[in-house]
């Protein structure tokens, strides 16, 4: 695609976006640099694995033969430590062989244009949504970057957001337009839960610095966390698969009720670490909340995924926020230890007053919460989000949701909520997920992109909101009264509210609640009008099956037997066909056999309905009826026959004989025990 098409497509997307949403003024980015016209045009619709046959590879990083798309038990961790780097001496030079770097390969498609392939999450076949790499450009050449295997369509770039670039140890927004479109490549080896669509993210690099670092969001590595935690007394909660520690920081008395905060379950959601650092900074400066509560913070639950540049999974290829119900002992020690910590707190008689799981969001703007509400009270769960909205300019109360959907039952929020409800079913607890946008927020009809200071301030605002909620009862009561006026309105919203619209897909085998079709329930009157559904006995079903499949009469009645005997070329089928032919010559037609049994009564002499006097079978039902009409009895003969039937064929014969014998025994014995 040439540059003229690049620019026109970008303008077209802006026009369509203006038709759908209200117009916002973007203030944090200056006017983007114009895109230079380019005559080179590419029309490629191949599988992405065939890109090596079309263009020259200038950079490639390989971890080993058993890393990609393999089960974790077959993975050798030593291969991760020493990746194979293939790079040419052409300029500019690309590099991702550092912590959090996830650039897999670079192909030169033109003199100043490069196609980049991102590394997928280790032991998975998707989630190439996060990028972080280094670019060395000593000659200050302007180059165009195309990341061609993005699995997420970041529509927010249409609002004018830019990628982040690091210059002189400071992260800032790159002054270049970003275009996201459907990729000219497709991928054929996706797993069943994902699509084959790929997207291309394109932008220009025209800075004069020799070495640049480029990322989707401002990175926050596990090394950055270790350096920051030096000012606190941290504990090691667990160790990951590769041996990295999962650290925990506690404030206040360990005998008080608990406020538990966790972050960074998903490695690519770096905004959650910046928010968590702001929250820790506020705790260190203001110790008021620590006097009444035991505050526990786990700032990085998934350090393995952070180190190796994953977006969503750990090294086992699993989403840690989907294994809370059944974590595996070998792979998910941090989740098991957090669960044990929660169980220990509840067993000690303490309560978890607030649980907050910090995440990042790629679709919405601003900061918002996903909360858990009680079925009877839609107001209590809205108090903390409303306090947060009044104390933080970044918080968007209208983006919050308060329903817990069925396909979210394996998340941390759902597990902690259900666990606490077992111990205290009659009390309310704040169990929320705090989501922060990857891009920015809206303020006064303007869109502003997040800076590192903004993200840290969100954590400080969260601490201030918790102080108001737990310690300032007057302000909390006032907000409660304001929400109570619209209780019926909030009740209707919660009933019709869609899912929380997170970046994850629904779990396999679980249908989202809003996609379940409602079943029509018939009332008693409608049942009377339509009539009762006739019941069919098991014997009748078996009979009907045999009538519809006469070849299977007398055979074993199982489905797998039917499938086996229905093969025309099998030896057993040939034997069955021969048996059926013999039966058809010696017995009545099968369809008429049951009619004969049903129409002829049982009082005919000598059971003549089955055989004629000469021993030959009847040919049809009509001959049986004619024979029945010719067989007549006098009333006296009929009476004698009925008396004989009552005497010898009565169903109560055994009971009569038993009673007669019992009378005889009573005469001979004084005590008889009946069982």
Automatic annotation (TrEMBL):
Pfam families (alphabetical): Pepdidase_M14_N, Peptidase_M14
A single GO BP: proteolysis
UniProt domain Peptidase M14: residue ranges: 197-465
Co-factor requirement: Zn(2+)
Gene Ontology molecular-function annotations: metallocarboxypeptidase activity; zinc ion binding
Active site residues according to the UniProt entry: 435 (proton donor/acceptor)
Segments passing through the bilayer: none
InterPro entries xref list: Cytosolic_carboxypeptidase, Pepdidase_M14_N, Peptidase_M14
Family according to the record: Belongs to the peptidase M14 family.
PANTHER family linked: CYTOSOLIC CARBOXYPEPTIDASE (PTHR12756), CYTOSOLIC CARBOXYPEPTIDASE NNA1 (PTHR12756:SF45)
Annotated protein name in UniProt: Peptidase M14 domain-containing protein
